[in-house]
Every structure is written in structure tokens, then in C-alpha cells.
Predict the structure.
Amino acid sequence: MGGQERAPGGIDPTVPSVARMYDYYLGGKDNFAADRKAAEQIIGLAPNAREAARANRAFLIRAVTHLCEQGIRQFLDLGTGLPTQENVHQVARRLAPGSRVVYVDNDPIVLVHARALLEDSPDTIVIGADVRDPGAIVGHPEVREHLDWSRPVGVLLSGILHFVQSDEEAQAIVAGLRAPLVPGSYVVISHGHGGETPPEVVDKGLEVYRSTSTGFITPRTRDQVAAFLRGLDLVEPGLVPVQHWRSDDPIEAEIDPAEPGSYGVVGRIPG
């Protein structure tokens, strides 16, 4: 992307964006100098940041694959991020043609790219909304028109809840998104953790994220993430580091859970 003159209207390229930083970790090109600088600061503190981001993305692909195999044909993807290889709608469409997908994000540049990508995908739509208002999302006219809430839906919260500051608000978001789900629906969560990183290094990383448009990041422990899952039937192997969730990739297996990374889990609404 590269320069101020090429920034879409309403976007300040001098303020790092977590979506564009993640794009940089994944090897994408939809990022500005400020994003690359902030991402490199994180890489300096957590040298496995790129590998951790790619493992998180691979987990999402495996989770969507599992949901398709279980008969899920509707997906609500919160905090979509910038398009990369193997987006949710591409995975779902390949495995289960006709699957319907709703992407949700509040980053203007994500919405620009997603809408351009989806021009020829009538089964997939994108809406601008904030995950902190789950009621507005599930009640959004376009969402209600696109998804049939009387049938199972897969709700995807990949790498988004750690940008919600308080545990109580994060739990309320999950509860609000679960409210309309019928039995047989699924909730997929991946969430950042600090591993065994020394507190002073974690603090430096938090300082980098305070400079972004989001303003913070909240790594959580396994127990804190587990609190979001009450009442769900967890798919084996349960809540584990994303690189350990049904992966046979030897490169992922080398990622040390003691390093910063993400937990991943897939839960089913019982009944």
C-alpha cells in the first residue's frame, strides 16, 4: 500500500491499525509504514509474532472446515480483517457450495477491501459494525435477511476478543452473539495470550498497541478465556494453543506455547 497519498478517504495512515499490522504479519501488502513500524516493534519483543499470526489463521481455516463437515452452512465472522488467502467464504464455498457468510468489521479499510473482493459473491456480504454491540449485529437488517436464525449458524470470533478491554464486556459480547443461536450452532474463538513472557516485555507490547487506532490489547490466561465457554460442548481437543488444535503441520508444532500466541476452541450449542 505504502504512502499517505494512496490512503482511502477517512483513513489516517500515520496511526497504526491492528488489522493492517495483522496483514503485515501474514505477509500481506495492505499496510502503511506506521503499521509496519508497530508490527516490527512487536516482532522485536515477540520474535514468533509472524508464526503465531499464521497459526491463528490456519486454526480458523481448520475450524471452518470442521463446521462445514458438521453441516453448518451459515457463518457470522466478527472482526474479519483484511482479505488474505483462504478467507472464510472461500473455504466454506469449496467444501459446501451455497454456504452463506456475513463478515463484520468496523475498520474502514477492511470494509473497502472486503466489499471489492465480494462483488461477485452473492452468498457473502460485509457490514460495518462494532463487535461491542452484539445486539445491533444479530439484529442488523442485512444480517437478518442473509442468515436464517432458525437454523444452525457458526459464529467466528477469531483474534477479536483480546481487543475488548474488560472480561465482563467480552463475556457479554459472547453471550449476546450466542443468544439467537439454535442448538447445533457453533462458536469459534481464538484469543491472544502472553505465554510466559516477562511482565516488563508484555508492558512494552501493550504500549505499542496503545498507539494503534484500537488503543489496547488484553492478553488473557487460559482460565479467563475458558470463562467465555460456559454452557458449550467443546469439540476435541478443547481449549488449547491454536497450533495444537487438530494440526498436523510440523512448523506449527514447533511454536512454543510458552511464547505469546493464541488459544483456540470450537464449542457447540447443546440440545
Q: What stands out?
A: The longest strand covers residues 186-193. The chain has a mean pLDDT of 92. The two ends are 48 Å apart (CA to CA). DSSP finds eleven helices and eight strands in the chain.
